[in-house]
Amino acid sequence: LIEGEEELLLPRYVRVNLLKSTPEEVIKTFIADGWTFLESAPSPPAPPGPNSFHRDEHLDFMLVFPPKSDLHLHPLYVSGVLILQDKASCFPAAILAPPKNAYVIDGCAAPGNKTSQLAMGMGNGGKIIACDLDLRRLNILKRLTTKAGCTNITALNTSFLTLDTSEPDNSKVTHILLDPSCSGSGIVNRLDHLVDAYADEQEQATILETTTTGGAAERAAAEEKKKERLKSLGEFQVECVSKAMTFPNVQKISYSTCSIYAEENEHVVTTLLRNHWPQWKLCPRSKVLPTWHRRGYPADVGDIPGLVETDEDRKKIADCVVRAVPGGPEGDLMNGFFVACFERVSKNKSAGL
Ligand code: SAM
């Protein structure tokens, strides 16, 4: 595929903001505008044809439009009813699914699409602290979440890693969403990338490109740099989730990346379970988008004494986590993504697989 061609193959995913409307209302509006509503998604999986759209089969608030549909000027987008968000990027908040009255931290929150999705799922109840180190991005979060009608979010310009877990408010936290900086290597839809890109992701993209285009020496040096970069990202990601596990009453933590690399995905999960099992375990597949077919890669799950010692154990761990393979048609028609969800093991409950 030539550069940019991937985008042509990816549907335009639209999240209906349930704080402002319903999928049924939005469908009626598009039909009235002359669009054709398809009762089901094309099979085998493919983007809908010109001028047609359908509901998503995994996320009930999501509609799927043809590639490159430009909805930026649509009145429903302008009024905050439609949110242009890649399907995979909706997985973490859908999996964390905090109850309406929960106290939630979104630890690396900006620009805030997942934060506003959390608020939507909670019907603006409970409380969400949206934390980000980057003030410019946090200001975008404030703007986007206000436009989306969210009223239960407090934005905090600080490092998640330095939050004081002994503060009384932090002892109320029950759910944490962590979507920390990553290599961004799963992003094929550059249109979304321009909105969401973090400086590091752009730097990483340049490194990744050099590994495929330079001369032999240049490629080897870039490969080495990429390895170092992935190692330090993996360490940062482990640090973030480990920090989340220190909140005294937190019960559930979702961890996600838009990376295709095991170093940021299965390897991070392995390290966390090595350090924190049996106090923490992975939520079983039944709580983690059970109908989504693409799960983790067993070969990338490492040994964990007492928990993962055989290939069968590796398969069970991999089955608890979700992956999306970027692009199409062999991929999942979205950006590459990974989500794992950890839950605290309460006394007298099994910490087994
Ligand atoms: N969850 C966001 C969304 O859906 O819109 C995207 C998050 S982006 C992948 C990662 C974010 O982590 C960046 O905005 C970056 O500024 C932030 N970040 C990096 N280190 C951080 C830290 N120590 N504490 C809080 N935020 C951090």
Short description:
This protein has 353 residues and is an alpha/beta fold. Helices cover 34% and strands 16% of the residues. Strand 7, helix 6 (135-147) and strand 8 form a beta-alpha-beta unit.
How does this structure look, described?
With 353 residues, this protein is α/β, with parallel strands linked by helices. Helix content is 34%, strand content 16%. The chain is built from 11 helices and 13 strands. Strands 6, 7, 8, 9, 10, 11, 12 and 13 form an 8-stranded mixed β-sheet that branches. Strands 2-3-4-1-5 form a 5-stranded mixed β-sheet. Helix 5 links the parallel strand 6 and strand 7. Helix 8 packs antiparallel against helix 9 and helix 9 packs parallel to helix 10. The termini are far apart. About 4% of the residues have low confidence. Bound molecules: S-adenosylmethionine. The site of S-adenosylmethionine has 22 residues, from helix 5.
SSE topology:
Layout: H1 5-9, E1 12-16, H2 23-32, E2 36-38, E3 52-55, E4 62-65, H3 75-78, E5 82-84, H4 91-96, E6 103-106, H5 113-121, E7 127-131, H6 135-147, E8 153-156, E9 175-178, H7 190-196, H8 199-213, H9 216-244, E10 252-257, H10 266-276, E11 280-282, H11 311-320, E12 322-324, E13 337-344
Parallel strand pairs: 2-3, 6-7, 6-9, 7-8, 9-10
Antiparallel strand pairs: 1-4, 1-5, 3-4, 10-13, 11-13, 12-13
Helix pairs in contact: 8-9, 9-10
The chain binds S-adenosylmethionine.
Could you list some keywords that capture this structure?
eight-stranded mixed beta sheet; 34% helix; alpha/beta; single chain; 353 residues; binds S-adenosylmethionine
